[in-house]
Amino acid sequence: MTDDWHSRVAALWDDETVSDDERIALMDRLAAERPAGEARALFERAGARDAAGREAEAEPLYRAALEAGLDDDHRPQAVIQLASTLRNLDRPDEAMRMLRAELDRDPVSPLRDEAAAFLALCLVSAGDAREAASVALTTLAPHLTRYRRSVASYAAELRADGA
Hints:
The protein is mainly α.
């Protein structure tokens, strides 16, 4: 049942013919198949609303999913998605605190770069473009085939000049 449920959730996300309203309704129906308050079901309901631009509806569902205890694969996704939602709700400072805590929590997280990308977006929203560029360049530098050291150094310089 669980594997089938996860497959149906994935199929719903992959279906580009479904409208935002239909996706929300279908996701709510899928979530209703799970025990009340189940973290993953709450997370999927939040994501459907978030994807539809209904951030105010998504926020409490993300918070409930995190409170209910998401697994290690979905917890960082929920943190990143909630932080993005908060940024869109004009609360970049709260989003930045969440993302920094996430980055500190797991230095080797497979979603570390994604969290840093959203932190950079939050920094821009908060009016700190220098720090945003520093975060983005620091994250990018290890992926470069050349000039890694130079880019990392410039990123540090941006951070120091902004302090």
